[in-house]
Write a structure and sequence with these properties.
Blueprint (H helix, E strand, L loop, with lengths): L1 E3 L6 E3 L4 E2 L6 E2 L1 H4 L5 E2 L1 H8 L3 H9 L6 E3 L2 E5 H14 L2
Antiparallel strand pairs: 1-2, 3-4, 5-7, 6-7
Helix pairs in contact: 2-3
């Protein structure tokens, strides 16, 4: 991650992950740089190239972990990557 000062245009290296204002977790570079950490079922289905109902079946069978936020279900990008990696490594 790069930071710039107000008075100079020189870039400086930030020392690793920074602690957020909430104090209970550490912001990762992904969160700081604006990349999504969670995706919707529709977004996950587009990425995986399957229908929404297949994604719901995967979540209900616990093959694809998800989180509930209010009445919505979201899937961590990391869990999607892990799911696909497991598919490619399980077939020998």
């Amino acid at each position: 991650m790069r930071l710039t000062t107000d008075t100079e245009s020189n870039e400086i290296d930030a020392p690793g992950p920074e602690v957020c204002n909430y104090g209970r977790h550490v912001c990762t570079d992904a969160g700081v740089q604006g990349q999504k950490l969670l995706v919707t079922v529709v977004e996950a289905s587009e990425v995986l190239g399957v229908s929404r109902s297949v994604v719901y079946e995967l979540m209900n069978s616990a093959r694809l972990p998800s989180v509930s936020i209010g009445r919505s279900r979201r899937i961590r990008v990391k869990d999607l990557e892990d799911f696909v990696f497991a598919l490619t490594t399980s077939r020998v």
